[in-house]
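Now for my pick.
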Amino acid sequence: MDYDYPRKKGQIDIVEGDPDLPLVLLLHGTFGTKLDMVDPHAGPDRDFDHLSPLKPRVEIGPSSYPGVGVYSCCTLDDKLDHVRSWNEVLTDNKFPTAVYSQVDNDGLLEEPVKELAAVVRALDDAFPKKPLVLLSHSRGGLLTRSFLKRFPKEARTVRTVITLHSPHTGSSLATLAATVRDAIDGLQSVFGDVVKQALGWLLDIAGSPAYGEMAIGSPFLTDLAADEQPLKGIEYFTFGGVSVRLTRVRQWVYTFDSALPQWRWPPYDHARVETEVPGASPVANSLPDVIEELTEGRGDLLTADRRTRLPFFAPHQTNPINHAEALWDPTLQAQVLKILGVDIAGGDRPDVPSFWG
C-alpha cells in the first residue's frame, strides 16, 4: 500500500490477518530497514549462535613434532540457521501487520516522525476504526513517543504501545563514543579483524547523528520528556536487555596429549579442540565496563536497561538478551504475544521472571 509523504513515495507492506485482531505496525531502529522486522537474518545480520556448544575434539593424525598451543585462530560464532522475525511470529498467530522502511534511518527524527503520521493516516484510511498496536525496536520507541506527542489526533486508533530496548532516557554510548572506539581499537590490535567484524556496527551507530540525538540530556530528549503524558486509551509496555554477549571469538588448540611422544615413528598423535580466545571472547564482554550499555547485567550493547523505561509509569520487563536479539528472541516474542492476548511457548531460554510472575 502506498502512502504520501513529501520526501518520497512510500510503500507499506501489509499482511492481512484475522479481522477481529488489531493491526500491528512494526517500527525499526537506527540504521535499520523493514528487514529488521521481517527478516533479521538478512537484515542486521547479527544473529550469532553464541549459545551452542563449542566443536568437539578433532583427530589430526600422526606427526614428527609435538603439537603445542594454538592450532588456528580466530573465528566468530556461526550464524543461526533460522530466526523467527516479529512479522513472522505475529502473522503465524493471525495478527495483521504493517511494516515500512523509515526515511533518515541514521539521521535526526524530525522527518521520520512526520512520515509516521502519514503512514498512520494511510492505515486508518485503509482500515477504518481498526485498533492499532505500535511495536517498536530501539530508536523506533523514541519515534513512537514523538509521534504520539506531536500528532495525538492521528493516534486516535492506537491502543497499545510496546517498545523493545529503546533508549527512552538516552544512551551514554553517544556521549562516550570516542572512549568505546579506543577500547575496540585496542582489542582489534591484539586479536585482528574479527573484532571489527563483530563490533564495527556498534561504532557506526554510536557515531551517527541519530545516536547523537539520543545522548543523555540531549535537547531532543529534554523536549520530548517535557510535559509528556501517556495518551488516554493507550496501554504502554517497555522491554530492556542486560546481556552484552554477542559472539565468541573461537580458536583451535592442540590437546594436551598432542605433545606426548609414543614409542613409534612418527611419535606424536595430533588432535585439536575448539576453545574461546582468552581476553577476547566473548567480544563485547572483553571491553572495559566504561558505560552501562556495555556492562553485563546492566546493558544490551546499545542501551542500558534502566534507560529503556518510560519517564512515566509503564510495566517493564528485563530479559537476558542483547540489543540485536530483541528482533527474534522467542521468550521476548512470547511475552509480547501474551500482552496481545495470545499464549505461546517461550522458546528454549531459562525461565525469566515476567510481568505475570
The chain has a mean pLDDT of 91. The first helix runs from residue 35 to 38.
